[in-house]
Amino acid sequence: MTRVGWVGLGAMGGPMAVVAAKAHTVVAYDINPEVGSRLAASGVAAAPSIADVATGADVLAVMVATEAQAEAALFGPGGAALYLSPTAVVMVMGTVGPVPVRAWGERLAALSVGLVDAPVSGGVARAASGDLLMMVSGSSSDVAAVATLRDALASRAPLVGEVPGEGQKVKLVNQLLCGVHIAAAGEALAFARALGLDAKDCWEIIRHGAAASFMLDDRGERMLDEAFDVPRSAMDIFVKDMGLVVDAAEQAGAWVPIAATAGELFRRGHDQGLGRKDDSAIISVLARGDS
């Protein structure tokens, strides 16, 4: 049985670790120790430090939100790189951008540790059912080493490249669409209200037609119920992700005006104190207009 060290038990990482623990030995660390304790009954063993997680791990799964968090987990004081065995493989599953992932792969290779770039998409419900989309890049040997964990977490896991960072590129295309679709759903439903329509009735009609999208279906209900306080995906995640999209586009010489506008809306939400709320709170930003 593969021993999986796990770093990051947030809204997505927690249910993913529980799914992984059904087929693997999972030892997990989160900056909030209470989270790990709550998952003990689900087969996830909580560890007090990253060192305990990394020592003896066949695969180290890193499911944190930002580049800085992943950098600290891998190479900061007490970071995993100090304790991973040669031939271990790190599996980076958060959205952090292609540049740092490539750099981490090079630094870990010098220690004979592999890296698989494997960002995921699908939301909390699909994370809990092992039904995620995973965008995988890495060497054939490293990808083979994480195959059983990959298959436990994802129903679709296409190999998109042989070099770490290519998975991140595909994920940024995914996030461009996700961010734009959330913003568009919020704008449409705020518009429905401004027209004097019953926005929930309008939503029920249009989500079954040509204007349907996953984000309209999933976020639309939360927007209309104003269910913002328990975030399934926090507003600040899309502040970060749309920033990554715009930065990568600038480096590639691509023009992404719609993504840039959506990113500005999420940043405005952050500035209005909504950063830790569910990203469906974007409808509140749009309802306020320029005020």
TrEMBL record:
SUPFAM superfamilies the record matches: 6-phosphogluconate dehydrogenase C-terminal domain-like, NAD(P)-binding Rossmann-fold domains
Pfam families: NAD_binding_11, NAD_binding_2
Domain 3-hydroxyisobutyrate dehydrogenase-like NAD-binding: from-to ranges: 165-286
Domain 6-phosphogluconate dehydrogenase NADP-binding, first and last residues per copy: 3-156
Keyword Transport tagged: no
InterPro entries tied to this protein: 6-PGluconate_DH-like_C_sf (IPR008927), 6PGD_dom2 (IPR013328), 6PGDH_NADP-bd (IPR006115), HIBADH-like_NADP-bd (IPR029154), HIBADH-related (IPR015815), NAD(P)-bd_dom_sf (IPR036291)
Keywords attached to this entry: NAD, Oxidoreductase
Gene3D superfamilies the UniProt entry points to: N-(1-d-carboxylethyl)-l-norvaline Dehydrogenase, domain 2, NAD(P)-binding Rossmann-like Domain
Cross-referenced PANTHER family: 3-HYDROXYISOBUTYRATE DEHYDROGENASE-LIKE 1, MITOCHONDRIAL-RELATED (PTHR43060:SF15)
Sequence similarity: Belongs to the HIBADH-related family.
Protein name from the UniProt record: NAD(P)-dependent oxidoreductase
Organism: Leifsonia kafniensis
